[in-house]
Amino acid sequence: MIDLNFPGYQFYVRGEGRSQEIFDPISQQYVVLTPEEWVRQHLVQYLVQEKQVPLGLLRREIAFKLQGVRHRADLVAYDRSGTPVIVAECKAPHVELNQSTFDQVGRYNRKLCAPYIIITNGLSHYFCVVSHVLGTVRYIEDIPQYEAL
Fold first, then answer.
1. 35: which residues sit within 8 A by CB, 6+ positions away?
2. How many domains does the chain have?
3. Which H helix or E strand runs over 44?
4. Tens digits of per-residue pLDDT, 39-77?
5. Is the separation of the CB atoms in 39 and 50 below 8 Å?
6. Residue 30: its pLDDT value, please?
7. What mean pLDDT is predicted for residues 6-26?
8. Helices (H), 67-139
9. pLDDT at 71
10. Sequence-separated (6 or more) residues with CB below 8 Å from residue 60
């Protein structure tokens, strides 16, 4: 896997070639190591180690229906009462982050109503704060520490 624009983290990887797996600390099991999963696991570590998000309050691939269509959010962080505070969309490093990506996470967040959004392909990261009352999205330099969310 390629180096990403995150601090260096320790990962547990097993297997070889296309049959590699990476340990996912959220589910406590090994998952297939795809380029997107490589990005997601870096984001998990970033949120836990740099932003102090409790690991127990992160969930991956949250399934839900929106207008009768099934969707899955890549990563969601919750507050201690179970309310989503961050919705993250992870793409493989070779995937361009474009309007379609922003629209995708926007659709997810209409259902989840988190005040923060992260979009990343591991090389580029976008952080946004969302006002659901005003219907606005504003880019910010970084996600605040967990206790400030």
1. 1, 92, 93, 94
2. 1
3. helix 35-45
4. 999 999 999 999 999 999 999 998 888 788 888 999 999
5. no
6. 97
7. 93
8. 99-112
9. 85
10. 24, 26, 27, 40, 44, 74, 75, 76
Q: Report how far residue 110's alpha carbon sits from residue 27's, in angstroms, rounded to the nearest whole number.
A: 25
Q: Which domain holds residue 100?
A: 53-148
What region, left, alpha or beta, does residue 34 occupy, with left being phi > 0 and alpha being psi -120 to 50 degrees? beta
Looking at the chain, how many residues does it have? 149
What is the distance between the alpha carbons of residues 79 and 108, in angstroms, rounded to a whole number? 18
Of the CA atoms within 13 Å of residue 108, those in its CB half-sphere come to 28
pTM beyond 0.85, yes or no: yes
In a domain, 32, yes or no: no
pLDDT at 16: 83
Backbone angles phi, psi at 104, to 5 degrees: -60, -50
Average pLDDT value over all residues in the chain: 94
Residue 38, classified by CB atoms within 10 Å of its CB into exposed (0-12), middle (13-18) or buried (19+), is buried
Q: Is residue 92 part of a domain?
A: yes
